[in-house]
Amino acid sequence: MTIEDVLDIYPETVKVFIKLKVPCLVCGEPLWGTVKETAEKYDVNLPLLLDRLNEIVEKKVCQ
Fold first, then answer.
1. Under a CB-based contact definition with an 8 Å cutoff, are residues 15 and 55 in contact?
2. Which of 7, 34, 52, 53 makes a 20 to 30 Å CA pair with 61?
């Protein structure tokens, strides 16, 4: 999924991206690309990022 899609569907995930220091979210630049591409570009731990994102998604689905 693209970052934009994730944020559109699960806006509460923005905190995960910021906490893991995805810089574009902090500076306000638009993000183009997938979660994987963005993680690689900014040297973010992809497995950790996906785990944190999935935790939020699972909580929302279970509500």
1. no
2. 34
